[in-house]
Amino acid sequence: MKIGLVLLFCLFSLFGFSQITDFDRISSGNIQRETQCVISNLPNDITICENEAAEFQVSANNFNDLTWYSSENHTTPIGYGAQFNTGILSESQTYNLQANCPFPENQLRSIETLWRGENGKDGVMFSLNVKKTVSLQSIDIHMKQARVNCHVFMINGVYDMFSNNPAAWTPIFDDMIDGKGKSEPVTIDIQDVDLAPGVYGFYVSLENDDLLYYSTGTSVYEDDFLRISNGRGVTWPFSYLCGDRSFNGRLNYAVGERPKSIQYEIHANVAEKANALSVYFVGNHFSVNQDGAFVWYQNGKEILNENQSTLYPPESGVYTVAKQIGQCVGYESNPVYFAEPDIDDSPMQAEFYPNPVQKILYVNTHNCSSGLLQISDARGSILHEENFSGEQTLNINLSDFNPGQYSVSLISGQARFSQMIIKQ
Question: How many C-beta atoms surround the C-beta of residue 174 within 10 A?
Fold first, then answer.
């Protein structure tokens, strides 16, 4: 089930980072404006049937990212992006959708080092001194023309003491990228990282030999917010360190306070399905001892325009039925088999009683020559056979049969007479 959610965006102001702390809940049908981020026309509730899944489809303009959370946990995302599938639900759930507004252009900055690339290795470590709070948005690197897996790690403090200790580092990017060759930047779109004033270590590495360009020697690059220094070449992963090297590339970041996020609360209400029904064969038709609307199936396919509590089976086959309440079709009954009687020019006649039966079923044969009696279950499996001879009364003990519906057939030559019975 898809629910169209329309997010309209207009941004000017600033916002907080990755985890949700304070957020704005938007009332159904209203328009809420917070620092010129706009979200509107969002339905508050949806309804699905028990043991089904709902899919939310969001249309978003100019939002940095869309993140889904459960109502019980506002810190651990359960989905990202414009589509979210709830998975199978047995009870109602509440979800929160967070829409993050991007930084405006006048808050974006970058600091660039070199693009010389006269040396190379798998990766490079370098120190970053943050003078004022920034949000690191992406990293542009300098690499050879190749498709390769790229990793980016960071650590609080100087990196030198932890260059061979992977457990001390936090991964912030791991994905395939495509190198473009010398002097052609390749953007690594990391998850935004908020950096308070202090010193941090960064490790950018490719998994293949000598694909990442850097420059020999140590150089310092700084602006009013950041200072890049102390580079070292590193063999993947966290292995041999080369001497002084300079990171080739660019750090793209934003300054100032983040734009506020907008969070919308969505309820997925689960409607209970009706329980499976008991079906009885009465005379020449199926019957359900309930009122309401029903859906009948023949051989697994819905029978159109049959929604009453009785059904006259049109032909032989396996039949089931389910009760429909509102939009939800309930659980199907156990399958019951119906066989049309095959009668020759001198039709056989028989009487079956009592029906329903608890223990002994009596079968009176009329106008029948000798033949075979068969009893089969709803799936057509033969459970009992015995011969009969002419007109007689057969006593069949059904004590060991499970409650349910069975077909009793009399077969004589090419002639067949069948009757449905109910074992209680």
Answer: 10
Structure tokens that stand for 69 in this block: 């959370």
Asked if omega into 356 is within 30° of 0 (cis), the reply is yes
d(CA 188, CA 202): 13
| Tens-digit pLDDT profile for residues 21-38 | 233 333 333 333 333 455
Q: Which residue, among 33, 35, 5, has the nearest Cα to 97 in the 3D structure?
A: 5
**Closest CA relative to residue 230, chosen from 117, 109, 113:** 113
Tokens representing 187 are 């953007």
Would you say the C-alpha torsion 386, 391, 397, 398 has a positive or negative sign? positive
The CA distance from 406 to 401, in Å, is 10
Of the candidates 122, 151, 118, the residue with the CA atom closest to the CA atom of residue 217: 118
Q: Is it the case that residue 16 has pLDDT exceeding 60?
A: no
Rounded distance between C-alpha atoms, residue 96 and residue 77, angstroms = 10
- Look up the pTM and report it: 0.53
Q: Torsions phi, psi of 232, nearest 5?
A: -140, 140
Residue 171 neighbours by CB distance under 10 Å? 12
Among 21, 18, 15, 393, residue whose Cα is nearest residue 191: 18
Delineate the domains of the chain, giving CATH numbers in brackets.
Answer: 2-104+262-270 (2.60.40), 114-247 (2.60.120.820), 280-338 (no CATH), 349-423 (2.60.40.3080)
Burial environment of residue 332 by CB neighbours within 10 A (0 to 12, 13 to 18, 19 or more): middle
Q: Give the lowest-confidence range in 192-201, 206-215, 345-354, 378-387.
A: 345-354
